[in-house]
Amino acid sequence: MPVKVLGIGVDASARVQAPKSFALDKPIVFYGTSITQGGCASRSGMSYQAILGRMLNADFVNLGFSGNGKGEPEIARTVAGIDASYFVLDFAQNNPTVESLMQVYAPFVETIRSKHPQTPILVVTPIYSARESWSADARLDKMRELIRQIAARRIANGDRNIEIVEGTDLIGPSRGDGLVDGTHPNDLGFEWMAEGLAGRISKVLALKLEH
Asked: What CATH code would you report for 28-126+135-205?
């Protein structure tokens, strides 16, 4: 649906001026699930990508699809078709089984790498789910291990521009307050995710963190 802007309110003492240029010529591209989408953020500016964009002074493309971040080949080609400065792959949980994730994950990474031989890729394993507090989740654990193995194989074969971030380092068992429903981050959770990714991305892209 189109958006019709009826008006913009500003303080009487505010000044309106052009923003400063982004620190990067190309956007950071994120692909994933409703977590990537920012589905439970209180507003669009509180997705972790939006927070990161402000921290890094970088433009971004958010390709998070609620319930549909499954890594299909057609989507892989679409993501690879974007001229990006950095790719973040944050998908797994929308795949019903480890086997279905296995069929798409390595080909997804390869599709990007074949079109962008030197562009950094960051793969993120699934964040903590509250149900893991009382019972191990074999599906999530195996998905995490699969993603680690795929990235590790590429690194062992000479790909120096792919890195792994453990989702549980962003939101782990001690950060249940960052989940709105036990699965999706709230504003606090997205802040933690952004903070956890900012240092890694800024180092790779030689960016200064904004405060």
From this structure: 3.40.50.1110
Which one, of 21, 90, 9, lies nearest residue 49 by Cα? 90
Domain ranges of the chain: 28-126+135-205
**Strand-pair partners of 89:** 31, 123
Model confidence pLDDT, tens digit, residues 14-58:
998 998 999 999 999 999 999 999 999 999 999 999 999 999 999
Strand partners, 122: 88, 163
pLDDT interval class at 211 (50, 70, 90): low
Helices (H) and strands (E) in the chain, counts: 7, 5
pTM of the model: 0.93
Bridge partners (DSSP) of residue 90 are 32
Report the distance separating Cα 159 and Cα 179, nearest Å: 34
What local confidence, expressed as pLDDT, does residue 210 receive?
Answer: 84
